[in-house]
Design goal:
Blueprint: H1 6-21, H2 24-29, H3 36-46, E1 50-53, E2 64-67, H4 74-84, E3 93-101, E4 105-110, E5 121-126, E6 129-134, E7 146-151, H5 161-167, E8 172-173, H6 179-185, H7 189-196, H8 206-213, E9 218-224, E10 227-234, E11 239-247, E12 250-259, E13 265-267
Parallel strand pairs: 2-7
Antiparallel strand pairs: 1-3, 1-8, 3-4, 4-7, 5-6, 9-10, 10-11, 11-12, 12-13
Helix pairs in contact: 7-8
């Protein structure tokens, strides 16, 4: 048998008295409060990340509210588009440039926000050369991006960056291909196959040739029968040399040869 002494009773009474006057309700109310470690993880996992635009993404001075269940006020988003235009078109890449975390929402500034005054660019590797393409500026004269507020409707709790990316998937895809890959997928099948095979074919434009072959080693121009032609030359002896001839912005002729040492040239047989 366990004996309960007066000293034990006094200690138990003291504990019960403290418990009675301790404000437990705020502790229970904060059970879903975002911890410091989780806040740091959100900031690290989202800041400076690139996403592919999947749907309507207008520029807006105020944060565009997007609910965690995937819904949003389409009328408000359309009105924002009408007022300031788009922050980017479907398939464009846009960067998260700032994060604000509140108790029931996460606000993401995209492309520097609508008030950004300086144009910013992403450098995209294309074949052997480089190509600079504007990111986060779907309209030619758009000076900046936009801001989206992910609304949870309750305390954020232990949400992490991977979960936030999944919730934003209807409008932003953080896992999708690059803007260059997305562009290639929209091209006619013969041109798409030629780019994947690293070849130039008739009908390509200059950008598509750059995607397929990179930058030429040499360029030359001539006027023939009143038409201005431009030749792009890829490769050098000894080895394969490709001549791509443009009439205007389109490829009108492709010629491949093998150039050996001493100036010998042999035309590569066609397929």
């Amino acid at each position: 048998m366990t004996l309960v002494t007066n000293r034990h009773l006094t200690s138990i009474s003291a504990i019960l008295i403290v418990a009675a006057f301790t404000p437990w309700s705020p502790i229970w109310a904060d059970s879903k409060k975002l911890t410091a470690d989780r806040r740091i993880e959100l900031l690290r996992g989202l800041t400076a990340e690139y996403a592919t635009i999947k749907g309507l993404l207008p520029r807006s001075k105020k944060a565009l509210e997007f609910n965690a269940d995937g819904t949003y006020d389409q009328a408000k988003w359309k009105a924002a588009e009408k007022e300031l235009g788009l922050a980017g078109h479907v398939g464009d890449l846009i960067q998260v440039t700032r994060i604000e975390i509140d108790k029931d929402r996460i606000v993401l500034q995209l492309g520097g926000g609508a008030k950004a005054k300086t144009k910013w660019y992403e450098h995209i590797e294309v074949g052997m050369g480089n190509r600079t393409a504007p990111i986060g500026q779907g309209d030619a004269n758009a000076p900046g991006g936009t801001t989206v507020a992910l609304m949870f409707g309750e305390a954020i709790g232990e949400t992490n960056s991977a979960e936030v990316k999944k919730l934003l998937l209807p409008i932003l895809d953080f896992e999708k291909q690059s803007v260059t890959e997305n562009y290639v997928e929209t091209l006619p099948e013969p041109i798409k196959q030629a780019i994947h095979a690293k070849k130039a074919v008739e009908g390509m434009d200059r950008d598509q040739v750059l995607l397929a072959l990179g930058r030429p080693l040499h360029k030359s121009r001539e006027t023939k029968d009143g038409a201005e032609l431009e030749d792009w030359i890829f490769g050098e002896p000894p080895g394969r040399v490709t001549f791509v001839t443009f009439g205007g912005n389109k490829v009108v002729k492709v010629k491949e040869t093998y150039a050996g040492l001493g100036g010998t040239v042999a035309q590569t047989p066609g397929p």
